[in-house]
Amino acid sequence: MAGFFSSRERRALLLFLSLAGLFLLGLLLGQRREQRLATDKSTRLVEAKAESDSVILFEFDPNTVEYGDLRRLGLTSQQAVSLLKYRAAGKVFRIPEDVATCYGMTDSLYFVLAPYIRIGEAYALRPAVHPATRSYSRREPRRIVPREPFRVDTVSAEYIASLGFSTRQAEAIILYRDLIGIRDEEDLRACYMIVDTVADLLVPYVIYPEESASAPQLVEINRADSAALRSVVGIGEKSVVAILAYRERLGGFYSVDQLAEIPQITESNFERIVKQICCDSCEIQKIDINFAPPSALKGHPYLPPVILRKLLSKRQLKGGWRSTEELVEDNILTRTEAARLAPYLRFTLRQTPIEAQKREDGWPARQDTASNVNKND
Questions:
Q1: With contact defined as beta carbons under 8 Å apart, do 284 and 344 qualify?
Q2: Torsion sign, CA atoms 210, 216, 222, 226
Q3: With left for phi above 0 and alpha for psi between -120 and 50, is residue 199 left, alpha or beta?
Q4: CA geometry: angle at 120 spanning 118 and 125, to 5°?
Q5: Pairing state of beta strands 150-151 and 219-220?
Q6: Neighbours of 245 (CB within 10 A)
Q7: Which of 126, 160, 277, 305 has a Cα-to-Cα distance from 83 of 20 to 30 A?
Q8: Which intervals carry biased composition (Polar residues) (predicted)?
């Protein structure tokens, strides 16, 4: 062999034979591994088939079932152990669907087991009973027993409670009387703490305040201070603050109906209040729409930011207006908005003597006036 190959060729041949041997060895080992995997797979299939053949379905409670029973139901050892660990952690199966949340539980297996799951009464989920419901079911309803006639306008909360009302009910009735007023049977029945059956018992004993012979003096809302407003039945402390703040923003009220725009005044209270108040529109602080600075216009409830921007932009270009009708024609206000804002507006036209003479002679001074307004703005 030494005669046929050189030293270099012999080394190459040895390297080739070594690599070929390693390749053949790898093939041999791979075949053996495939055979072993195939054997293991066959074994598992046989075992699985044997297990499926031995599955016995029966009713069971997942809160008490044992490992052996779980295996007979078709669970693998891992699934059975997972369910037992779930239970050991303090978890309770309240409904059958809780079994599906166990680690390793497949949808197909749960679908098979679901018809056989029975939750014991000790573990089953019960509908919650509100404490108030339980207390009312045990306690007899309070009996309202008037003893003698009483004046509803001066009676105390303690006396109301002595009739059979709870302390909280008595305090609520007194608060209602002080804020809204109880002047007749209709007012008594309107009180939210007095049901009709109780009102029937109270009516023969209640003495209502006597109506004054003279007509009550109305409160003028544009000049009234907080004390005067507080004297109006239906206006509480929060409502007083809200009315004064809204009056300041508006510049005064021109109608008592504007009180309905205040969120703190409810519809029922409004109906009571309007009978006790009046409105002098002469007290309104008017705005010179042609020359008022933006700071004087900003914040008025009837001039929201969108309208105010349009108004200021148009005024800068046009100079001013003579009436609310022109504001409508310029698409700054709708007719409804113009009617609501009109009592607060004043349209001043600052003119030179020559322009005033033109106006007297019947000459239109619209362009001159507009430019003059623009110059003075």
A1: yes
A2: negative
A3: alpha
A4: 95
A5: unpaired
A6: 12
A7: 126
A8: 368-377
pLDDT digits (tens, 9 = 90+) for 184-198: 787 888 887 888 888
Q: What is the rounded distance in angstroms from the CA atom of residue 248 to the CA atom of residue 259? A: 13
> Phi-psi bin for 314: left (phi > 0), alpha (psi -120 to 50), beta?
alpha
The model scores a pTM over 0.85: no
Per the listing, tokens 């303090």 go with 90
Nearest CA to 100 among 112, 349, 88, 159?
A: 112
Q: Which two tokens stand for residue 196?
A: 């009709």
d(CA 228, CA 220): 9
User: What are 226's two structure tokens?
Assistant: 């907080």
Q: Is the CB of residue 238 less than 8 Å from the CB of residue 264?
A: yes
89-142: per-residue pLDDT in tens?
A: 888 898 888 888 888 888 888 888 999 999 988 888 766 555 555 544 445 556
**Which residues neighbour 351 within 8 Å (Cβ) at sequence distance 6 or greater?**
359, 365, 368, 369, 372
Rounded-to-integer distance, Cα 307 and Cα 341, Å: 12
Task: Give dist(CA 77, CA 67) in Å, integer.
Answer: 8
If one compares 24 and 375, the residue with the highest pLDDT of the two is 24
Query: How far apart, in whole angstroms, are the C-alpha atoms of residue 76 and residue 58?
Result: 17
Is pLDDT at 355 greater than 50 in this prediction?
no
d(CA 285, CA 297): 12
Q: What is the pLDDT of residue 267?
A: 84
Here the tokens at position 9 are 């060729």
Which CATH number is correct for 219-283, 3.40.50.300, 1.10.150.280, 3.40.50.150, 3.40.50.970? 1.10.150.280
Distances (CA, A) of 54 to 69, 71, 73, 95, 117: 12, 10, 9, 27, 19
Three-class SS state of 120: coil
Domain residue limits, the chain: 1-43, 67-116, 150-207, 219-283, 287-376
Nearest residue to 277 via CA among 221, 322, 237: 221
What secondary structure does DSSP assign to 343-368, as a single string? GGEE------HHHHHHHHTT---HHH
